[in-house]
Design brief:
It contains 15 helices and four strands. With 367 residues, it is an all-alpha fold. The protein has a single domain, classed as ABC transporter involved in vitamin B12 uptake, BtuC (Orthogonal Bundle), CATH 1.10.3470. The strands form two sheets. A two-stranded antiparallel sheet has the order 1-2. A two-stranded antiparallel ribbon has the order 3-4. Helix 9 crosses helix 10. The radius of gyration is 21 Å and the shape is globular. The two termini are 20 Å apart.
Length: 367
């Protein structure tokens, strides 16, 4: 076994029977550094995302988008996809929230874990944000909302890591606890933003700039930071290593417990921030989790559709974002086609299964 690690910001070069994704990531990064021109770097990036679902799902997304545009041009009244209000609602509101939640779920899945209390975390964090905003102020409320999300996820992570209970079971049980905590804090009536919903809050989290809303700006910022962290930092490489093979990762001095707790903390921070976007846009949050329970399913679906492995150790930031956009695009198409509401849930369930089968078939190509 050879263990060669740099002390700088670059990820360690691992030559061991470790996670295939971690090894492949390092080879790709090494090859990319040797390419001095834009074409060479682009070629290496395409080679990296090909076979991991990102490139394939992007092609599907583009084809579907073109079909929607053609259908809207042919019949603008019956299929009003290009209506400015529809585009603003889908692209600038629905996609950013789901993509951020998908990144949260996807990063945790890359590390080999799940958190099924995502919806309950959104509810509790949004309630904490609203009550702090009403009582203290905006900036304290932002910190409180994000911190609440992190603490909830870290409690879940500590239970999973130190008791070795499967994360499916542990976080499913804790989701009911966090739902109850939201009711305990706020009662059964909705928590509502009233006097605290000022111009600064709206500008930051729900402002309509005409062609886009502020949520899309946050997605771009978070997406870029997530890409650099997951694909360009050594801690991101640790996520792939631990998710692919925890024992081998530990053999080269990577602490799997620490990495998993870190991934839970990142998950919680992203969920807490998404809860703020939701709370400001809707101006209220209903305790009990009924308003947010679907987000858990949709976030995991976005990650899986984007090529993230259900077994851990594989995934891309670009794929997750495109996966979220594709889900919202299809959901919007069903709504515009006036399909019954249960069709959407049916679609998500079938999509997860199909994407999981597809990802399994693509694992050989990824290697």
């Amino acid at each position: 076994m050879t263990d060669r690690r740099s002390t700088g910001a670059d990820a360690p070069i691992i030559e061991a029977p470790l996670a295939t994704e971690a090894i492949t990531t390092q080879r790709r990064m090494s090859d990319a550094r040797q390419s001095t021109n834009f074409g060479g770097r682009l070629k290496h990036e395409l080679q990296f995302i090909r076979g991991r679902g990102a490139l394939e799902i992007t092609i599907v997304f583009v084809v579907l988008l073109v079909g929607y545009v053609i259908a809207s041009l042919v019949s603008p009244t019956s299929f009003a996809f290009l209506n400015p209000n529809n585009l603003s609602g889908v692209i600038s509101q629905a996609v950013p929230v789901l993509a951020i939640l998908g990144l949260a779920a996807g990063i945790l899945m890359i590390a080999g874990e799940f958190d099924l209390s995502l919806g309950a975390n959104i509810t509790l964090s949004a309630i904490v944000f609203i009550k702090t905003a009403e009582g203290v102020g905006l900036w304290a409320a932002i910190a409180a909302g994000v911190l609440c999300g992190v603490l909830v996820a870290l409690v879940n992570g500590a239970i999973v890591v130190y008791t070795r209970i499967p994360s499916f079971i542990a976080t499913l049980g804790m989701s009911f606890f966090w739902m109850g905590a939201g009711i305990f804090i706020n009662g059964t009536t909705p928590a509502t933003l009233t006097t605290s919903r000022d111009e600064t809050m709206v500008f930051l989290f729900a402002q309509d700039f005409g062609f886009f809303r502020s949520q899309i700006v946050w997605l771009i910022v978070i997406g870029v930071l997530a890409w650099f962290f997951v694909h360009r930092h050594r801690l991101g490489n640790h996520l792939f290593a631990v998710g692919g093979n925890p024992a081998a990762a530990e053999a080269i001095s990577i602490n799997p417990k620490r990495v998993k707790l870190m991934s839970f903390a990142i998950f919680g921070g992203l969920v807490g921030f998404a809860s703020i976007l939701i709370a400001v846009r809707t101006s209220s949050m209903q305790p009990g989790g009924s308003a947010t329970e679907d987000f858990t399913l949709f976030a995991i679906a976005a990650a899986v559709v984007g090529g993230t492995s259900l077994l851990g150790g594989r995934g891309t930031v670009l794929g997750i974002i495109i996966g979220a956009a594709l889900i919202e695009l299809i959901r919007n198409g069903l709504l515009l086609a006036k399909a019954p509401g249960f069709y959407i849930t049916l679609f998500v369930g079938v999509t997860i299964v199909i994407a999981a089968i597809f990802n399994k078939l693509m694992e050989g190509k990824a290697r």
